[in-house]
Amino acid sequence: MDDFFYQLQQIFTSRRRYWGLLVLGLGVMFLLGALMTKLSIGVLFGLVTLAGVGLVLLTRPDTATMIVMFMIYTNISVVAYKLHNLPQALAGAVILLILLPFAVYVFVRREKIRIDYIFLFMLLYFAAQLLSFFPAIDKEVALDWIITYVIEGLILYFLILNVIRRSDVLRKVTWALILGGALLGALTLYQDVTKTYSNNYMGLAQRNVNFGFDEDRANMDPNLTGKRPKIQLAQRAQGPIGDPNRYAQILIVLLPLAYFRFFDEKKWLLKLIAAGSAGFILSGILLTYSRGAFLAICIIMLLMTVMRYIRPYQIIISAVGVFALIMIASPGYLSRIGTIGGVQGLFSSEKAAETDAVIMGRTTEMLAALMVFLDHPIVGVGMGQYIKFYALDYQDDPNIALRKLDKGRRAHSLYVELAAETGILGISTFLLVAFFVLYQLWQARKRWTGVNSEYANYAAAYFLSLVGYLSTAVFLSLAFQRFYWVLVALAGSTIQILNSETQEGQAAGNDAPVENALAPRPESAALHETHSNPSLK
Questions:
Q1: Which of 327, 340, 254, 332 is nearest to 294 (CA)?
Q2: Do 189 and 96 share a structural domain?
Q3: Distance CA 29, CA 425 (A)
Q4: Is residue 362 one of the residues assigned to a domain?
Q5: Residues 331, 337, 338, CA angle at the centre, nearest 5°?
Q6: Where are the alpha helices (H) located in 227-356, listed in sequence order?
Q7: Dihedral pair phi/psi, residue 232, rounded to 5°
Q8: What distance in Å separates the CA atoms of residue 519 and residue 513, rounded to the nearest whole number?
Q9: Is residue 135 helix, strand or coil?
Q10: How is residue 531 annotated by DSSP?
Q11: What pTM was computed for the model?
Q12: Share of the chain above pLDDT 70, in %
């Protein structure tokens, strides 16, 4: 196997004459496949092209990593499968491109396979899911959830951890995510400005152009039994996900990455691209009209203030800028944000405190899941079982029902739903993974602050991104979990890279890299150099 990969790499790097043989071989494969199978020419051409690209990427493994990260985060392969009839096998094969850099690192360059504590804690979470399988009513559904975690969680984390081994690769992958988010945000903004809601731009800017009942816009008496007027649902952007809140969730984690790339890049062109990307990403978030995303942004900015990356007066300036952007891009967002104040109605009997119906509905959903957890505290009811077998009965409980719900709904909170389905074992191991990653990132940031600002900022960026995701998860269930585990994997890679750089620096006599004067640093690390940091002026 080692010789096979080595010979392939030699073919592409040192012998041009093999290119002709390669093209000829691919052509023969294409013709034979067309004659011997019932697949269409287009499908065969796609398979052969994918194989050819894969062979080329053996010589550029880091490029393959960037492509895979870009495609995962833009959801291109899933969109192509669901909306453009791409065969499922071919759509899934795109993600398998990450096996190419893994093979190069492990079999060609003979680098050691990496396994860290985060991965081991993820195995504990996997064990908790296996235990929750036994009380599950629908074993097939529970098994599907577990298999999804194995593929999108364990395997994806393991592969990403082993293909992002250097800071330059981490930088490229970070840029791939930023540009992917900028593309999605730009398409969403253009769609809204031109009012071309019927054009989903190949599935990357989805909207619901039908009329219906938008629960997130409801503001009515929860006891009202009359018919609600139908409204047009196209107002809320859904991106490539098909859901506005989760679209906002995957975009919000990119804002800290773009912010720190702006300061860490040396070239002004890249700084401008980072700033422009942040603008497009923020526009995409605003056009989702997601209140949870707004709260997450506030939490991120508060943390950045505590971490001394921004000053209070800069928050005011940023708020004015965001307000102006809201008025231009999505003026209706202000009215949605205003409904957040209605949550006080949950704890007040005064009529002045009117509660938004959706807040009452979601609170009911969360309380129902919490009651399921209290009734099944150890291993839960099984993955995927809550919505199917328990939600409606518990939501109808008059002791917790703040609003009458016509059907069983998911808990609208990752934490209480996960607790209901996997018990204390599942939720505790899940949080163990999250908190351990955050702790390691925080320690890495402290270690590199004042030594190498770019390294410190990598840790800070992924720390804030993870906090942003976990904040939105208070109001969203764990769906499209690959986005979360990709973020955890990138954070794990960041930790490994920064730890290895620390060890190499100690072995070399603490010969630290040169500080980037333009990078944002905590005030304590730049007390005598505030003139060199634009964020601290």
A1: 340
A2: no
A3: 51
A4: no
A5: 100
A6: 244-252, 254-264, 268-286, 291-306, 312-329, 333-338
A7: -80, 130
A8: 14
A9: coil
A10: G
A11: 0.82
A12: 72
270 within a domain of the structure (yes/no): yes
Residue 98 to residue 103: CA distance in whole angstroms: 9
**Is residue 42 very low, low, confident or very high in pLDDT (cuts 50, 70, 90)?**
low
User: Is residue 477, in this structure, part of any structural domain at all?
Assistant: yes
CB 182 within 8 A of CB 281: yes
Which pairing describes strands 211-212 and 231-232: parallel, antiparallel, or unpaired?
A: antiparallel
Are residues 123 and 103 part of one domain?
no
Residue 523, φ and ψ in degrees, nearest 5: -60, -35
User: Could you tell me which of 203, 209, 197 has the C-alpha nearest to residue 241?
Assistant: 203
pLDDT in tens, 281-339: 999 998 998 888 999 999 999 999 999 998 888 778 877 877 777 777 666 666 677 66
CA distances from 502 to 89, 265, 490 (A): 42, 22, 18
Residue 90 resides in a domain = yes
Rounded distance between C-alpha atoms, residue 186 and residue 205, angstroms: 9
- As to burial, measured by CB atoms within 10 angstroms (0-12 exposed, 13-18 middle, 19+ buried), residue 314 is middle
- Check whether residue 35 and residue 83 sit in a common domain: yes
Q: Containing domain of residue 12, as a range?
A: 2-108
Cβ neighbours for 100, distance < 8 A, ≥ 6 positions apart: 54, 57, 58, 61, 64
Residues 88 and 212 in one domain: no
Q: Do 202 and 184 share a domain, yes or no? A: yes
- Position 222 scores a pLDDT of 42
Give the HSE-up count for residue 366: Cα atoms under 13 Å, Cβ half-sphere.
Answer: 16
Beta bridge partners of 232: 211
Measure the CA–CA gap between 67 and 177, rounded to whole angstroms. 10
Same domain, 162 and 249: yes
3-state DSSP assignment of residue 239? strand
Determine the Cα–Cα distance for residues 336 and 293; give it in Å rounded to an integer. Answer: 12
366-393: buried (b, 16+ CB within 10 Å) or exposed (e) per residue? bbbbbbbbeebeebbbbbbbbbebbbee
Alpha carbons 188 and 154: distance in angstroms, whole number = 32
| 181/71 same-domain check | no
Handedness of CA 410, 180, 101, 92 (dihedral sign): positive
Structural element, H or E, at residue 231:
strand 231-232
Q: Return the structure tokens found at 279.
A: 């603008």
Our CA angle for 388, 389, 393, nearest 5°, is 115
- Residue 211's H or E segment, with its range, is strand 211-212
Asked whether the predicted pLDDT for residue 528 surpasses 70, the reply is no
Joined together, the tokens standing for residue 33 give 């496949």
**Cα–Cα distance, 163 to 177 (Å, whole number):** 16
pLDDT reported for residue 18: 46
Q: Are residues 270 and 124 in the same domain?
A: yes
Q: Which comes out higher in pLDDT, residue 276 or 536? A: 276
**Domains held by the chain: number:** 2
